Each structure stands twice: as C-alpha cells, then as structure tokens.
Amino acid sequence: MKIILLGAPGTGKGTQAEKICAHCHIPQISTGNIIREAMKTKTPAGQKAQDFVNSGKLVPDEVVIEMVDDRLKQPDCANGFILDGFPRTVPQAQALESMGVHIDKVLDIEVPDQEIMQRLTGRRVCAECGSTYHIQFNPSQKGENCDKCGGQLIVRKDDQPETVTQRLQVYHDQTEPLKDFYQAKGNLVMVEGVGTVEEITARTLSALEA
Ligand code: ADP
Ligand code: ZN
After folding, report:
1. Which pLDDT score is estimated for 135?
2. Which ligand 1 atom lies nearest to the CA of residue 52?
3. Which of 19, 71, 124, 156 is catalytic?
4. 119 within ligand 1 shell (Cβ under 6 A)
5. Which of 10, 20, 46, 16 lies closest to 134, judged by CA?
6. Angle formed at CA 162 by CA 157 and CA 166, multiple of 5 degrees
7. DSSP H helices in the chain
8. Do strands 153-154 and 188-192 pair parallel, antiparallel, or not at all (unpaired)?
9. Three-state DSSP state, 191
10. Taking Cα atoms as reference points, which of 27, 20, 1, 35 lies closest to residue 156?
C-alpha cells in the first residue's frame, strides 16, 4: 500500500506514520527526518536546506523532490511506503505523479491551529534517532533521554513560537491546497487528529481499511 500523510506541522503525522509503519510493515519516509539528517552530516542538499528549515520555510521543491526520488528507488519501497511530510506543495505532488507513483490513500489529519501551537512548543526530539516526545502528552520514561536509544532530547530550532506561526502560515498557503488536489482524485480521507494517540491511531488504521 502506498500512503500519503497530509496535515499541518504538529498534527501528529510522524507519530501516526510510525504506527502505520509497524502495523503494515512498510517503510516510513519522513522528508523532515531525511532533511535534518542531511543537515547534520552537511551534505550539499543539507547545506541548501538549512536556512529554509530553521526559519520555518519550505525547502525548495527541486531539492526535496530529488531526495524523495532517490529514496523511493530503494528496494524496501517496492511493496509500498508511507510518505510523511511529502508532498507539501502542488508541484511536489505533480512530481510524484511524474515518477509514476500510484498512491492508494491520502490521510489528512486535522487539528485546530490553537492546539497545534501548544503541541509544538512542548515537543522534544531525540538528537540521535529522531523519535518525538511531548513534555505533557507523551513524555519519555527516561526524562531528558530517548526511551528507544538513550539519545538526548532537544527542542528543534523550528519549534520556537514565532517559527511555529510561520510554519502554520506556510501550511495554509502552500500545503492545504493539496486537499483539493487529492479530493479530486478520490483518495482523500479525513482523520480527526484530536484525542489520545491510541484513539487517533485507531481512526488512522480504520481509515486505511475503508
Ligand atoms: P513538521 O511537519 O512538524 O513541520 P517536518 O519534520 O515534516 O516537520 O519538517 C520540518 C521542516 O523540513 C519543514 O518546516 C521544511 O522546512 C522542511 N521540509 C520537510 N518536508 C518538506 C517538503 N516536502 N518540502 C519542503 N520542505 C520540507
Ligand atoms: Zn532516540
């Protein structure tokens, strides 16, 4: 199954992507994680991306499209995958079609902006493996360290309040039009993104079966 997870920053897309990945045994392709890894290891693409990411803007389409194209050619994607954070613009969605990729389901996770602000400012991310936590809603059992790998938990630069506002604006302007794009193709499913992680996961998995 080939799945796209759509939604604003802070809707819990990444968490849901992990759940689907474990349930359906398909790889999770998170462009945010790929880009942050490229920034950390200072690849040419990572260096191009840096200023955009840290100021809450989208990385230019051609940079992200090339990263995704490379990733989808890996053998583990042959039986399906879940795209988390891509496409984020109409040109990216068109590029995916040009790659000959047929998407089965597009899940749109909906959360009000006000709740998003609260979630993102409390978010913590593992500096080593990229797992995400929340100081209130989903704390690590190991305090300031990752439950999975013991790495240090940090606040992402782009989770500062002003940058979060900027990212929400970018979402409404550039990513939200993708709802109409996929609605027109008939494979968009809306998932209510407010509730416990377990509740939302149950909705996500049933939306995949529908
Ligand atoms: P979130 O969904 O919480 O904003 P991500 O980890 O998905 O976080 O993305 C973080 C940043 O990486 C984005 O703000 C953007 O700068 C960049 N990015 C990720 N995916 C894309 C994409 N498909 N197109 C352009 N930029 C992207
Ligand atoms: Zn970790």
Report:
1. 92
2. 16
3. 156
4. no
5. 10
6. 95
7. 13-24, 31-40, 44-54, 61-72, 90-98, 113-121, 161-170, 177-185, 197-209
8. unpaired
9. strand
10. 35
Strands 132-134 and 123-126: antiparallel
Q: Render 120-147 in DSSP notation, one character per residue.
A: HHTEEEETTT--EEETTTB--TTTTB-T
Model pLDDT for residues 94-120, shown as the tens digit of each residue:
999 999 999 999 999 999 999 999 889
Grade residue 43 by pLDDT with cuts at 50, 70 and 90: very high
Residue 210 predicted with pLDDT over 80: no
For the question of residue 123 being annotated catalytic, the response is yes
Q: Active site includes 119?
A: no
Q: What is the pLDDT of residue 156?
A: 87
- Give the span between the Cα atoms of 80 and 47, in whole angstroms: 30
Look at strands 123-126 and 153-154 and give their pairing: antiparallel
User: pTM for this one?
Assistant: 0.87
Position in ligand 1 atom list of the atom nearest CA 170? 14
88 flagged as catalytic: yes
CB atoms within 10 A of CB 21: 18
pLDDT in tens, 139-183: 999 999 999 999 999 998 889 888 999 999 999 999 999 999 999
Average pLDDT of the chain, as a whole number = 94
Give residues with Cβ within 8 angstroms of 201, minimum separation 6. Answer: 16, 19
